[in-house]
Amino acid sequence: MPRKHLIASGINKKQQQQAKIWMKCAKEIKAAAKQGTNPESNPRLKVAIERALNNNLSRESIQKNINGASKDESNIKELTYEGYGPNGLAIIIKALTDNEARTISAVRGYFSKLQAQLAKPNSVMMLFAEKGQFIINKDQDISSDSLLELLIEYDVIDIIETDEVYELLITPDHFSSAKEELIKANVNLISAEIKLLPDSFISLDPLNREKLVRFVNACEDDDDISWVVTNYEEEI
């Protein structure tokens, strides 16, 4: 196949992946908005909006899905699946589905290929905590001390420094205010999201890492699955 066709195919695949992410974000917003359209009094909607913004869904599309929630007659259920895999790998899957039997069948298949087992509710969730996470580019003249000083009024949990980025963790209640403060200071945010993060991390050998990559890809390709988180030490 000529190279230009390969490039075009790659671009098309990325567009399809982005479209799927936006579809899942819209689905999550609509489901959350059924419990109330004000994000300040509906924490689930607030998290869904932040996730959508982090994935570049426009504010217009977000508002359209919030407004359309009351007219949506689909019987969507929110389901959480927890499990354990190789070497103490902890897994949480969040799904939005109108067919519970279809979704659990698919999830069991994904777990089986990973050689993982489903666990009792909250047995895995207790190993994670919801936190506001900012990934900040270090390409500008900013230090970890200046970031902490900027957010001195907010509950900063931790700031982790690598060669290229800062990972700043904050309590969910202060996420929106801290985000506004960072934007006002022209801090280069790579991502900003409220998410479940593990209390500690595990490593995997190359074979089990490859199985985990396939597992995560299968979950992301599944229209019923909103997101999956694990306690693996690398981002997949």
UniProtKB/TrEMBL annotation:
GO terms for cellular component: cytosol. GO terms for molecular function: DNA binding. GO terms for biological process: regulation of DNA-templated transcription. Residues 77-232 form the TACO1/YebC-like second and third domain. The keyword Cell membrane does not apply. InterPro entries: Integrase-like_N, TACO1_YebC-like_2nd/3rd_dom, TACO1_YebC_N, Transcrip_reg_TACO1-like, Transcrip_reg_TACO1-like_dom3, YebC-like. It is found in: Cytoplasm. Transmembrane segments: none annotated. Belongs to the TACO1 family. This is Probable transcriptional regulatory protein JM47_02075. It comes from Ureaplasma diversum.
